[in-house]
Amino acid sequence: MLETLFATCLSPGILSGHRLAAQNVLCGVLEQCVSSSLQDVAKLACGGHTTDRLSILYLEHYDNSISKSMKQVLVTLNKLYSRCLAITGHCVERDGFAQRLIDVLVGNKQHSRAKAAFHALTLFTNKASISPPRLVALYKSSLADDTWRSQFQEKELSVEGQLFAGLLEWISFHDIAPTAGTLITALLVKGYGSLARQGQHPNDKVPWWTLPLLQSVQTHSHDLTIYRAHIFPALFATDCVSYWHFLKFLGLEQQLGLPSSSDTIECNIELHLPADVRAALLYSALQVGKENGLIQENGMTDSPSHH
Question: Do 40 and 121 reside in the same domain of the chain?
């Protein structure tokens, strides 16, 4: 039965309605199998042959199907991976699929599959199927392959910074920016920032995300409204201290005509933003802080001294 259902779902010439019906049945059967108390039945459902074909179905036909049906495929796939982990203690197929998604987003940059990749990694992150450390490890493993090189590798960024910079590249695509922002938000909520800060020098007060963010803004300065809507809220809210340091780095005190405080932010970032772009970035950052309750008219709601 599974072979017939997969053959129908993966058929290139099938009508979208027929594919949807086949996908619904396929996902229903697989979810019944994976929840079975019979170990052999569960293993059949979460075996590599099954999960590999289901991941192919998701990526290859994402744009040709109703989004709700593809979400069902993705949810089912995640359940299979989770059961595989419970049975065997590891899931090579899940890691392989995650690496393929990373390649879509920051390796070969396949626009036609970007939304599917962002949605999949967001679900895996929110469901704790893949933790930020595991995602970074998979990305680092990809960098070790001579046939796969990141354009950010030579820019003195940490591995976490490189991955973050790669995800930010999609901000320039207005149809993909919201899904990119959703994944970045999910990663930050799950502790990506804490992971990235581990590689920083203890005295380095400039947030770990400053350089990749400024590089991205320098290229896409006309899209600050997109950063403001999809990137800044989570980036600032997950670490109020870093947000405050970022404001000072942008020259908040000088803009307000205040004397520099004792903890003036200095760094060796060799990146020069035009004055108008820097001012616009500072204004956007302040507006986001105000809208999200990070600052009030009389100052920060959470002073760095409180942390």
Answer: no
